[in-house]
Amino acid sequence: MPRHAVEITLTRPATPAELARASQALPLAANRDSTRLMAVLKAANADQALNRARRCIKGLLPIDALTTHYPDQEGQVLLSVAFSPAADAAVRRAAEHEGQEPHQFLGQVIRRALADHARREAADLDHALRSLLTRTSPDRLVAAVGRTLTHTIGERTC
């Protein structure tokens, strides 16, 4: 059976006691501030891995979202979010209004939001670069970018 890496994002840092209890249910690796965890689960597919992870640690940790850590063959990651009953009802109503299944509706809304974010980020970067170019030449700007990237990459450790 294949193994699937699942990332668990928490709403707040987990306490040492919470991590210890959850690690008994599912082997976990935590980041430095205990807000993101990783688990590797055996499951037939990524969706089953997410469901299994949620079942194992539900109630043990302040879970915000679960995602598959690696993209699938289409370059997509799966997202699992548990909604409150009121939020679930609102999503279902909105999906019905659009004539879609709730998971399709949410996927479309998330993709649209990510695309909007990417467009805004690109526009902000374009604006910042235009501002920089009013104070320096393109060749000096490119040289500064190169120095910064080289310095940042050189600081990384294994």
Strand order of the largest sheet: 2-3-1-4-5
Report the portion of residues in β strands: 15-25%
Order of helices and strands: EHEEHEEHHH
Question: Oligomeric state of the chains?
Answer: single chain
- Low-confidence segments, given as residue ranges, are none
End-to-end span in angstroms?
31 Å
- Largest sheet composition: 5 strands, antiparallel
Secondary structure: number of strands: 5
**Envelope shape:** extended
Structural class: alpha+beta
Q: Please count the helical segments.
A: 5
Quick structural gist:
With 158 residues, the protein is of the alpha+beta class. The protein has helices spanning 16-25, 46-57, 85-98, 102-133, 138-155; strands at 3-10, 29-30, 36-42, 63-68, 79-80. Strands 2-3-1-4-5 form a five-stranded antiparallel sheet, covered by helices on one side.
Characterization of this structure:
The chain is an alpha+beta fold and 158 residues long. It has 5 helices and 5 strands. Strands 2-3-1-4-5 form a 5-stranded antiparallel beta sheet, covered by helices on one side. Strand 2 (29-30) and strand 3 form a beta hairpin. The radius of gyration is 21 Å and the shape is extended.
Task: List its traits.
158 residues; alpha+beta; five-stranded antiparallel sheet; 5 helices; 16% strand; extended
